[in-house]
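Protein Entry — a single chain follows
Next Lines — sequence and tokenised fold
***
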Amino acid sequence: MNNHYLLMAAVWLSAISPSMANVPRHPISEQVAQQPIKGVVVGTDGSPIPGASVKSLATNRVTTTNDRGEFTLQAAEGEKLVISFIGYTQQQVTASSSLMKITLSGSSSQLGEVVVVGYGSQTKADVTGALTQLKADNIKQGANISVDNMLQGKVSGVRIAQSSGEPGAGVDVFIRGVGSIRSGSTPLFVVDGVPLSNDNVSAAGPNFGLGSSEPKNPLNFLNTSDIETVTILKDASAAAIYGARGSNGVVLITTKRGNRGGPVLTYDTYIGTSSVIKKMDVLSAAEYRKALVNPAYDHGGNTDWQDVIYRNAFVQNHNLSFAKTSATGSYMASLSHMDQDGIVETSTFKRTTARVNAEESFFDDKRLIVKMNLTASDIQETGIPNGNTAGSDGQLIIHALMANPTRSVYDSAGKYTNFNMNAHYNPAYLLSIYKDKTNTFRVLGNVEASFRILKGLNYRINYGIDKSTSERNSTIYPNVTDRTPTGAYVQNNLSSLTTLLDHYLTYNLSVNKHQVEVLGGFSYQQFKFSGTAFGTQGIAQQGQGVDPEYNPGYSGTPTSPSGYAQENELQSYFGRVNYNYDNRYLFTASLRADGSTRFGKDNKYGYFPSFAVGWTLSQEGFMKDISAVEDLKLRASWGQTGNQEVPNKITQASYSLSPSAGYYLYGDQAVVNGVTVNRTPNPKLKWELVEQYNIGVDFNLWKGKLYGSLEYYNKTTKDPILNIPSEPLSPTTTVWKNVDAQIVNKGFEFMLGTQVINTKNFTWNVDVNGSTLSNTIKDLPVSELYSGSISGPGLSGVNANIYKNGYEAGSFYMLKHLGYDKDGKDIFEDKTGDGVINPNDRQIFQGAIPNFNFGLNSQMRYKKFDLAFSFIGQTGGYLVNNTALDLNINSLASDRNVLAKYYEAKASTANLVQLSTLYLEKSDFIRLNNVRLGYTLSLPQVTWLKSLNIYVSGQNLFTITKYSGYDPLVNTTKTVDGNQSLGVDYATYPSTKTFLLGATVKF
């Protein structure tokens, strides 16, 4: 009987033995030795690699690293583990009971790079939307006050235009064109997970008759040395997770944290000098004397007025930071000070910032992680009388350019020469009587906690505060001009507070070849703004008593104070699903619902969906034998985003009380204030909607010899918000309303890079990016809208921009100048054919928006030397040179200077000043934007010094252009009725050419 059972067992074992041959067998002693093996996987730069595969060769057990690059795997000490990840070279290591640190070196593929996205991060291999991430090493060149300036020429589809070259002045950032007529084109900036408001955080300046000054750039508070990465989300798939604020694109900024390894103390510093990028070609004193019509206008002097107001300006920057990472967390702290003089006398920018980033983990296996980011900045600025709203008599820059070069700065008594002219003054004297000081203090901070509820399921909460206060003291002392001759003082104060609360859950699941990430959350953001203003007229003479900014009650007559307070809220629900099958097929879908108090009761909520797919062809079997193709991915996306950048409460009616609208209660003895309706309510008002689709391809060929991406996009703005004429019987003449018009932006983008040389001693990378843009307005329900107010004598009410169906946004509307006749008289095209040139002969000319922008960037490293340079450029655009309009030929007949080109063309001084294509110039240019040459010293005998890099750099070294103004890359704010202006240059504070000497020391 027993033998029978033994025989049956033998037969059964022999039958199954082939199938069991592949089953791993472990002695009991090995099973006992199994234990949790813990480790972290990082790149060569020390940054964690999430999603890396960790596999035991002995047991085939597999796990993946979390978002901090950490893993835990049951294995026996001494087992062989294989670590792999797309974009990195596979590595085999031996399991150890101590905490393992595995460093993967990157292959020529870039797909393993981790990029920041909204509410999380992804590997580049998993990205389906159009986005670009820049690291600190790619954007740190030069003396940049704000982060938006650092993007110049680095990203296809992104155009940066200066509103002014004044230190700290505003910058216009256009991502994929102009998507709105009056709601602006500024993207949403998110710093360490906190979306910033696009509202001003510094006070504007008053108008003392020389134009009002614009508020400063709200991004000035960030120390650019603290920035780790900048990610630009361009298409709707990438930006839709930000819903109602993502229509103009999103810029995600992350700041530096402690890297793995020992503590590091870093000191960055540079000093340098700046000068005007070029001088305007006006007549010299000798040329002016030859050109004079009236000899009385020769005052005997010889003055270059541009040299009088411009100077060689000094800049210095110091940044000290220290960072460390421990087994449970990390921290980074920095302190910086920047001091930059403007190239115009008396203008300065000073900023002191302090920053702390900290991260710590708690409980078992880092179940709870708490992060804190805190930035505090104090900015002190002094400005000049150079407002862009100045009338026909201009402001400082115009007065310097039109000043007669035969005049002297000082008279025989050593005082400033009095020109004794209306609407024209000694520019040096203007600087001496004007004081403008702005102090802005801003604190941005947030605390984020992440708690692992279950394996793969994490809850995060993010609480942020953005608080700023600004005080601007502006004074014009009693003077001999007709610009506020008795003097005046105004103090403008502005305060803002933004609070943010985010809750969201993320769930990650990996089953065989399937990887799924689900995100769902809630966000609440509140915005509070308030401002006050008061002032004094008829103040004491300069130098007498206490300056009014310190004692405004010392002298003069107080003006009526004013103030305002506003509050709005944004409540949002959002979700996203990412699906990856076998690293080949990718799918992303997101939806955000935004509720805003800015909109009417009928449309409190807007809904913003997006979808995207990706196909990694290089992972397919039929591509494996094509050695030239290392990475190849196709992408397609569609989505909708919104634009809510409109004034608060415009959906509600507004009323005011005034005697002018009142009536007499008792005969003529008392007036009862009457009620005036200022705004017609519209409860149906809703967001501007931007719908966009994108098709792209990413590739890496011949092991990095050629890599890059190609994109086609079509971006359409629907339901734009306009302040248009109201219906009959409405209480006001205009009403805020969504109209059925469309603004269409479409084009191609490319980024091509090559690793020219890659040896131990010599590496050289070059990349070039470019983008085309076609912009068209469709279905506008009104015949046209205007903007771009022109300044100049006799030009009050003249506008340069027109918004009209079938044309691009901000097209130009003016007379067509054909040249001069034999007497130097202007010849214009008679469009109407009536023989008389009048406003009806104006024509539309397109080109306010350049149709092609490009950038070229190169980085070389030879042994201990490093060299980087970049070019930027644009074509297909035009600028209205409003500065030249003020320097027209008839200035020779009024004791003023002119541009040399008008005199050389033999134009008649009797020509009327009219807006025409004579002042419409191409804005095409190519510029050597930056050059940096560095050398890293090796001092092995100094054990406490890790590295020392010394460098020299130059910015804006030369520009090739036919534009006669200071800078073709400019966009002066000249709005009309809130409609944004495009392609106007009016006496802008010039850009600068800068040379720096700097050093980076690590201890």
